Amino acid sequence: MNLQEYVKLLRSRWITVAVTILVALAAAATYTFLTTPLYQASTRLFVSTSAGGSVSETYQGNRFSQDRVVSYAELLKGETLARRTIDKLGLDMRPAELQSAIKAKAKLDTVLINVDVLDPSPVQARDIANALSDEFVNMVRELETPEGATTPDSRVVVEQRASIPEKPVVPRTARNMGLGLLVGIALGIALAVARDMLDNTVKKREQLEDLTGTGLVGSIPLDKERRKQPAISFDNDNSAIAEAFRKLRTNLHFLSVDNPPRVLVLTSSVPSEGKSTTTINVALALAEAGNNVVIVDGDLRRPTLHKYLDLVGAVGFSTVLSGATTLNEALQKSRFSGLTVLTSGAVPPNPSELLASQAAKSLLAELRAEFDYVIVDSTPLLAVTDAAILAAGADGVLLMVRSGHTKSEQIGHAVANLESVGAPLLGAVFTMVPASGSAAYSYSYYGESSPRQPAARGKHSSTGQTNPTPHEGD
Length: 474
Ligand SMILES: Nc1ncnc2c1ncn2[C@@H]1O[C@H](COP(=O)(O)OP(=O)(O)OP(=O)(O)O)[C@@H](O)[C@H]1O
Ligand SMILES: [Mg+2]
What we know:
By secondary structure, this protein is of the alpha/beta class. The protein is built from 19 helices and twelve strands. The radius of gyration is 41 Å and the shape is rod-shaped.
């Protein structure tokens, strides 16, 4: 993966990164909040020896003190002094507890020792630091006075006494939050990359073309408005989604140029991939270019075209097939010019048999003769056989693929289903492509290049000869 791909990946998975950062920051804040504040009081001790008068004796004495401070630092952290300090102050703690709160550090090449004491109470921190230092002065005197002598070889003075600390040194809020941010960023990126690696949904053009063995003929952006109003009124509409449907209309010219498809079945692998919405708008885009278009609701199980277009659903495809009504009675004019609709009709008990009947084939042939384009909405391929039956009798099939939702195995099975009935798969269409994301990117690139020639499938193979489609106005 190169840098550009990483940037693209992070842009498309920014929510994962942002949530991980927020969680890490929240964890850091909770840790900070739950940490008991500790105050630090410090003293400084000075070590000296009783030196002689000469320069060399003074030097010797100084060296002696420097050697001593290292041992003194250890004694300051020792159990004996801790016990003596606790006794002196009457503290309610064990020596080990106090020892863990003491830091003593000898400054290199000096005769100074810094003593730090941590305690939840600022006053107690000061008292311990001072008492400990005073006790240490006594302790050194006892230790360093040779038996029988009256003066010690070495002496410690509390050069700087402790005062009450104003602010706690623990928790270190800024450091904790900074660390939380860094950990959050690193984890977020790792998680985004891991999710991308484990993600087997399809959103890249190349991936889709490999799976279907055909070209990508359209990429319909996600447009929330379509949930309220599925049909786009193409008049003066230059929105991204209207342009995407116009581009799809143009690309249909490139498909099977020898035998321009006029009866198209739109299907998908799984439910809710945008078949019905796309059916309506592909038809409207074709109607905008001056074509006389009919859409047929071939989804006899969960029909939606009549709802999406505010039409009557009781009379339609199934009622014509059963002989209850004639085709002309069942066809309904939509509110859009150039668009006629054959809704599904009453839901029949045997949709697959009905669709496979000779009557269904004749009905589609009749519509083909009457209209420039017959666009058939259908069911998902992996759920029932209806779509495959319709697809087998069509000039061409377009496979809707919901970007970032449909899994590669599902597309593989759907394509195999179409192949098994010899249906002519003309191309794939990405639907509900998010505004930013790899699919959106791949399509903008597609728009600038010529579309990949679809692979020959089924009975309608393309030979590459140009044969402009009649009735097309763009
Ligand atoms: N381009 C789009 N942008 C936003 N939402 C969309 C788009 N296309 C379809 N939808 C929404 O997605 C949902 C499913 O769409 P639609 O009914 O067209 O899918 P379908 O494949 O026909 O479903 P089914 O398998 O149930 O027949 C609907 O709520 C619809 O409004
Ligand atoms: Mg549908």
